[in-house]
């Protein structure tokens, strides 16, 4: 799998699907998730419909650059934020969403792509929004999926989903894979699949087990703050996709995103949680194809 330097000291692992002459679609993944979370079959289906698909590992995830010289205790970080000790919280986290957005542009540049359709899921949606805000001239269209605006009033997780999110998984492979079933709490109620969750967890564990990076990614999300004012001024064609079953980022996060971005389109999908069930791929892919046409 190719790895390319996108800025001094930062390299990203990536993979492409389809013809480089087709319209480029950059897929940006979420918190703690490797590029594998954009399922290979999903990427190939999109490529077969005439898109040049690029998926990659964010920094501090998968096979991309790790920032292990800046260890972060997630409990200490949350305590600092909760107590209002923002200077201490800021000192713990070595990067922000803006840096992760620059990574995405750096990858496009390395691939010789000036402008692309940018699709982000969850934290990836936050990164994609930041890309569109910071360099709109390089973003053909924006798709923000199962994400939010950085405003604390919107997209609240349920207590059960938040508990699973912040519960560390066992470090051994067997325990790690078994614990993946807990993610059913935010999956589609109709299509949630424990077997698929375990298979995905096993593939990710075997490829690159790196739990230390998630605390830094969490810090980047929290400390980057609200994008509300910037989104009000955004003029990039935008599609917002959110599942009505989502309990990790409540649908209010997607609705608020669409409310803020002028002329954006909102697609609320029944039977979709904080996941992309295979049964709903045709709906998602058709929406992406129409939006990126």
List keywords for this structure.
single chain; 293 residues; alpha/beta; Rossmann fold; 8-stranded mixed sheet; globular
Outline the fold blueprint.
Elements: E1 3-7, E2 10-17, E3 24-28, H1 40-48, E4 52-56, H2 74-82, H3 86-92, H4 97-110, E5 116-121, H5 123-134, E6 139-145, H6 159-165, H7 173-179, H8 194-208, H9 213-223, H10 228-232, E7 238-243, H11 251-260, E8 265-269, H12 281-291
Describe what this molecule looks like in 3D.
This protein is α/β, with parallel strands linked by helices and 293 residues long. Helices cover 40% and strands 16% of the residues. It contains 12 helices and 8 strands. Strands 1-2-4-3-5-6-7-8 form an 8-stranded mixed beta sheet, sandwiched between helices. Helix 11 links the parallel strand 7 and strand 8 (265-269). The longest helix is centred in the C-terminal third of the chain and has 15 residues, at 194-208.
């Amino acid at each position: 799998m190719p790895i390319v330097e996108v800025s001094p000291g930062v390299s990203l692992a990536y993979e492409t699907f389809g013809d480089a002459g087709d319209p480029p679609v950059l897929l940006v993944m979420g918190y703690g998730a490797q590029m594998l979370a954009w399922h290979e079959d999903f990427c190939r289906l999109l490529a077969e419909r005439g898109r040049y698909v690029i998926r990659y590992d964010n920094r501090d995830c998968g096979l991309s650059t790790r920032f292990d010289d800046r260890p972060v205790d997630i409990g200490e970080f949350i305590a600092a934020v909760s107590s209002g000790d923002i200077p201490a919280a800021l000192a713990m986290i070595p990067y922000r969403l803006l840096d992760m957005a620059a990574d995405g542009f750096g990858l496009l540049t390395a691939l010789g792509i000036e402008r692309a359709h940018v699709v982000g899921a969850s934290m990836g949606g936050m990164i994609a929004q930041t890309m569109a805000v910071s360099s709109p001239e390089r973003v053909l269209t924006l798709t923000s999926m199962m994400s939010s605006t950085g405003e604390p009033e919107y997209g609240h997780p349920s207590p059960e989903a938040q508990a699973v999110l912040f519960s560390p998984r066992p470090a051994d492979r067997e325990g790690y894979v078994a614990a993946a079933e807990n993610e059913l709490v935010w999956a589609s109620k109709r299509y949630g699949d424990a077997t698929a969750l375990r298979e995905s967890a096993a593939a990710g564990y075997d490829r690159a087990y790196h739990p230390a990076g998630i605390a830094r990614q969490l810090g980047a999300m929290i400390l980057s703050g609200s994008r509300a004012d910037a989104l009000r001024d955004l003029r990039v064609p935008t599609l917002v996709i959110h599942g009505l079953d989502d309990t990790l980022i409540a649908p209010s996060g997607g609705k608020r995103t669409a409310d803020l971005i002028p002329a954006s389109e909102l697609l609320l999908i029944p039977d979709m949680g904080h996941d992309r069930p295979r049964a709903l791929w045709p709906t998602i892919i058709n929406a992406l194809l129409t939006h990126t046409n």
